[in-house]
Specification:
By secondary structure, this protein is mainly α. It is built from four helices and no strands. It binds zinc ion. The site of zinc ion has 8 residues, from helix 3.
Length: 71
């Protein structure tokens, strides 16, 4: 999948995206949430709204990003 953030990724591909440093970095550089394309994304490349809607295992991956650990 090379479709980066033109319209957000499907929810079921979020686990893949959170393991992909390029995709997270791109979301942060463009300040565009990977899921919904809102602005004000955090360290995980997600906005606070999507971040708060995560469940494990995506949540664990996002928490790692927020802790500065990465994928
Ligand atoms: Zn979002």
């Amino acid at each position: 999948m090379d479709r980066l953030n033109s319209e957000g990724i499907p929810r079921d591909q979020l686990g893949y995206a959170l393991r992909n440093r390029k995709m997270v970095m791109f979301a942060r550089q463009t300040d565009t949430c990977m899921l919904c394309c809102r602005n004000n994304v955090g360290e995980s490349g997600l906005c606070s709204y999507c971040y708060s809607s995560l469940d494990p295992p995506e949540l664990e991956l996002a928490v790692k990003w927020n802790a500065g650990v990465g994928p």
